[in-house]
From TrEMBL:
InterPro entries: ATPase_NBD, ROK, WH-like_DNA-bd_sf, WH_DNA-bd_sf. Its EC number is 2.7.1.60. Keywords: Kinase, Transferase. This is N-acetylmannosamine kinase. It comes from Roseobacter fucihabitans. GO terms for molecular function: N-acylmannosamine kinase activity. The keyword Repeat does not apply. The gene is nanK_1. It comes from the Bacteria.
Length: 419
């Protein structure tokens, strides 16, 4: 299980790392024992027990008797065994998915289940600051009406189409929204309204993280997630780690070379995959565009028109054609990276018609089959949940967990209940 480690090897930092490791194991393997935790994490049972006691006291995990079914499986003998579980409402994470399709703010519990969400309307993407304030205000309203304990929120996740620097909480560039080099302004505006740490990621990477921890790639160390909507991008995981590239640039699948089209990509070329295997190319083939170059002022139109096309049986052949155009690129990805799975996500990518066309083209032209080297599957995590799950991954199941804050919160709550 992935741990985001940003700490030096001091006793305090090791303690934080070990907490993250133990929480990850408890979440992924409910009912695990202290002895099993120690063995799997590679430290003494005494050390595991100390950290478990801390997490129990903070109300983040709980202990319960092993079920009769589990007893039969494990053939326990002697006194009843106890196992550890995540307290689902012990912690929460909140998220902002920046999208022209369905702008979403969301809350998930500690086990990654969606607790609440809403879709703010009429978000203006003209400036970074205005968009950030609109989303943050909508998220604040959702938190206030959700009924959750605000003191138990670990942080905010932000997922959007664009290149980001998570360590610096910056948007480097987003051709989709027309933003560039925001210097961390988007995240700062959110923190002014929601006083919590913020983790920002490219939507493909955010979905890959969510699938890796909570979705269809939980037991897979090497996979690629392809996010196809208006444009197409990829999140790549190798040996349980996101591949970011030397300069933080990776996953630019949409700029793979394909056939020439009478369209212009955001990069200025006319032969990018973004023009033949995506919503933008599909809308052109359907005669829905009166322009050839991508226009950031038409984001809402692209989104609405694509969703309508996906619901229109008359567009099925062209949706399938777009899926077929993606298949050669996926064959190259499979041969280059050797993933165990390729996950198709996004409003277009996970659509049955598009997905089935991709799979059929791989079968017909690239020898894809049930005994091949990789499996192609539809994504299990919708974009509405990706950002909150990103925050949960970054601020709960890692060494960034603010344990002292939640321990203090738990003590205060106990005092309020029993004092």
């Amino acid at each position: 299980m992935v741990i985001n480690s940003h700490s030096s090897a001091t006793p305090a930092s090791l303690r934080k790392t070990h907490r993250g490791m133990i929480l990850s194991r408890v979440q992924s393997e409910p009912g695990i024992s202290r002895a099993e935790l120690a063995r799997m994490c590679g430290f003494s049972e005494m050390a595991a027990t100390r950290i478990v006691r801390e997490l129990l006291a903070a109300g983040i995990i709980q202990e319960s008797r092993v079920s009769d079914q589990d007893k039969a499986k494990k053939k326990h003998v002697g006194r009843p065994k106890t196992g550890l579980h995540i307290v689902k409402d012990g912690l929460f994470a909140v998220g902002i998915t920046v999208s022209a399709y369905h702008s979403d703010v969301s809350i998930c519990d500690a086990d990654g289940k969606l607790h609440a969400s809403s879709s703010p309307e009429n978000v203006a993407f003209d400036t970074v600051a205005d968009a950030a304030r609109a989303y943050a205000s909508a998220l604040r309203d959702l938190i206030e009406t959700s009924g959750i304990d605000v003191s138990r929120i670990v942080g905010v996740g932000v997922a959007l189409s664009g290149r980001t620097l998570p360590d610096r909480a910056e948007i480097v560039t987003s051709d989709y929204f027309g933003w560039a080099n925001d210097g961390g302004q988007f995240c700062r505006e959110i923190q002014k309204i929601i006083n919590l740490p913020v983790e920002i990621e490219n939507i493909s990477n955010a979905l890959a993280i969510a699938e890796m921890r909570f979705g269809g790639a939980r037991d897979v160390s090497d996979f690629a997630l392809i996010h196809a909507a208006t444009f197409v991008g990829a999140g790549v995981v190798s040996d349980n780690r996101l591949v970011r590239g030397a300069a933080g640039v990776s996953g630019l699948l949409g700029h793979f070379r394909a056939e020439d089209r009478p369209l212009t990509c955001v990069c200025g070329r006319n032969d990018c995959l973004n023009l033949s295997a995506t919503g933008f190319g599909l809308l052109s083939r359907l005669g829905k565009l009166d322009h050839r170059a991508f226009d950031t002022s038409k984001l809402s139109f692209y989104a609405t028109a694509l969703l309508n096309a996906l619901d229109d049986p008359k567009a099925a052949d062209l949706v399938s054609e777009a899926g077929q155009n993606l298949a050669p690129a996926l064959d190259s990805v499979a041969k280059l990276l050797g993933p165990k799975k390729i996950i198709l996500s996004g409003y277009l990518g996970a659509h049955d018609c598009y997905f089935n066309a991709v799979r059929q083209a791989l079968t017909d032209h690239f020898d894809y089959g049930p005994h091949g080297s990789f499996e192609i599957v539809q994504g299990t995590i919708p974009s509405v949940e990706a950002a909150a799950l990103l925050a949960l991954h970054a601020f709960c199941y890692s060494d960034q967990l603010d344990y002292d804050r939640f321990a203090l919160s738990s003590d205060r709550n106990k005092g309020a209940q029993h004092g």
